[in-house]
Amino acid sequence: MVIFIPVSFVSGTSGTFYKQFGLTMAVAVGISLLYALTLAPALCAMILKLRASRAPLSSLKMAEAQPKVSKMNDDSNKILSQRVRHIYDASFHALLGRYTKVAMLPIRQKWLAAAGVTVALALTALLLRTVPTGFVPDEDMGSLMIDVSAPSGYTMAKTEEVMNRLTDQIQQLPELESVGGVVGFGGANKGMVQVQLRPWSQRTGSDHTSWAVSARINEILAGEH
């Protein structure tokens, strides 16, 4: 719990992803601690019994002095523990028998094991192509930010000319809704272009996503070099 609780208070993107994990592990460890301190000792006292051994004379005298009610309670507890042990043994052996049959099946039928490995490899290759592998999957946010860097020594007026040519060409793309630019963002030869795309309902198809638009804008930028 000392390890997992602080994880829940981590800030930023990592904290968002690890908060539920930290809380879940902390609660699970707490429940396990409560079980180990309360229920487990009680079950051990009911199920596990010491073997009968020769008791000293003083203990025999004390046992003779005990009332018959305590003896009846001990007998009932012993019967209950025997029943619990019998049920547990029967369930465990039944589960062990089924597990042994399933585990021995691929050993006896080697072709079945080979087929299972082949299917697993095929599914792995398929999932590697279809399941996203990034920590945070890419999403079409409907907007793009473009950083423009003119050659060193360009004045803001010269950089503005370059920005105007770029924005004029970018505005010709049918997926765009608006384009805006700022000159001198980080230096006289620096600029930034803000591109707002049309709503997703008007950009259906893989050729009209933000990634496709970004690729075409990169082609426009490459033509300025």
Outline the structure in words.
The protein is mainly alpha-helical. Helix content is 61%, strand content 10%. A 3-stranded antiparallel sheet has the order 1-3-2, covered by helices on one side. Helix 5 (68-108) crosses helix 6. The longest helix is centred in the middle third of the chain and has 41 residues, at 68-108.
Which helices and strands appear, and what pairs or packs with what?
Layout: H1 4-7, H2 12-37, H3 39-47, H4 57-65, H5 68-108, H6 110-130, E1 143-149, H7 156-170, E2 176-183, E3 190-197, H8 210-222
Antiparallel strand pairs: 1-3, 2-3
- Architecture (CATH level 2) name of the domain at 143-222: 2-Layer Sandwich
| CA-based shape | elongated
Structural class: mainly alpha
Q: First CA to last CA: what distance?
A: 58 Å
Q: How is the largest sheet built, in terms of strand order? A: 1-3-2
Helix content: 55-70%
Instruction: Please report the number of helical segments.
Output: 8
H/E element order:
HHHHHHEHEEH
Unreliable sequence segments: 59-66
Number of strands: 3
Kindly identify the CATH topology of the domain at 143-222. Answer: Alpha-Beta Plaits
Rg, Cα atoms, Å:
37 Å
In the CATH hierarchy, what is the superfamily of the domain at 143-222? Multidrug efflux transporter AcrB pore domain
What does the main sheet amount to? 3 strands, antiparallel
The CATH class assignment of the domain at 143-222 is Alpha Beta
> What does the average pLDDT come to?
80
Give the amount of beta strand, in percent.
5-15%
